[in-house]
Amino acid sequence: MGKPGDRVMHDFGESLRFSHSASDLPIWEEVYRQAFPSFSAMVDHRQDGEHQRAGIDRSVILENSKQILIDEKVRGRNRITGAVYDDIALEYLSVAEKRVPGWVCKPLRADYIAYAIAPLGKCYLLPVIQLQIAWYRCGDYWIERFKRIEAKNNGYTTISVGVPVKDLFREIGGALRVTFQPLEEIRGAA
After folding, report:
1. Going by C-beta distance under 8 Å and a sequence separation of 6 or more, which residues neighbour residue 188?
2. Can you say whether the dihedral through the CA atoms of 137, 139, 145, 146 is positive or negative?
3. Mean pLDDT over all residues of the chain?
4. What is the 3-state secondary structure (H, E, C) of the chain?
5. pLDDT band at residue 43, thresholds of 50, 70 and 90?
6. 135 CB burial (10 A radius; 0-12, 13-18, 19+)
7. Cα(47)–Cα(57) distance, integer angstroms
8. Among 29, 25, 8, 40, which Cα is nearest to 152's?
9. Chain Cα centroid distance, residue 76
10. Predicted confidence (pLDDT) per residue in 6-25, tens digit
């Protein structure tokens, strides 16, 4: 957990090259076979085109032909310090100078963000709708409380916040539960 004002800097281009080089790793099939028991196939969408512009790196096809759209993120060791981060970096500004929203708060077509922390051998499947509800409810608090991650790019800066897994999943879980005014009597029910 960081303190307000804590910052971690990294090179976006280097991170993107790392992420794209990781697209051929055997971890993805292993992850998707475990996550989706009726896994049948997967299709890589790294080539330039409509899928990439929509933020979709891979489709997972289930035995019943259902297609699940996934945006893959891979996090490795810090090349300078060797540190392995166990939080999840949520990008909330993709171009900070122009206030362009990042993937945690912009409209996405993906069903899941598959967020792999390679040195830990862990992949978190973040359901996009519930993740974005959690961000809407808690984003300002997380920005105040947890470490800020800045990536300097060619003329712009990307900003994320590192949210501990337990905090993030508690809020994602909360987005899966809805309360309503209790009803004692339901008309027409047996």
Report:
1. none
2. positive
3. 88
4. CCCCCCEEEEEHHHHHHHHHHHHHCCHHHHHHHHHCCCEEEEEECCCCCHHHHCCCCEEEEECCCCEEEEEEEEECCCCCCCCCCCEEEEEEEEEHHHCEECCCCCCCCCCEEEEEEHHHCEEEEEEHHHHHHHHHHHHHHHHHHCCEEEEECCCCEEEEEEEEHHHHHHHHHHCCCCCCCCCCCCCCCC
5. very high
6. buried
7. 9
8. 8
9. 15
10. 555 555 456 556 556 777 78
What pLDDT digit, counting tens, does each position of 133-158 carry? Answer: 999 999 999 999 999 999 888 899 99
Which residues 6+ apart lie within 8 Å of 138 measured at CB? Answer: 167, 171
Which residue type sits at 150?
E
What is the distance between the alpha carbons of residues 31 and 90, in angstroms, rounded to a whole number?
21
Residues whose CB falls within 8 Å of the CB of residue 96, separated by 6 or more in sequence, listed in order: 150, 156, 157, 158, 159
The residue behind tokens 């409380």 is 145
* Per-residue model confidence as pLDDT tens digits over 105-135: 999 999 999 999 999 999 999 999 999 999 9
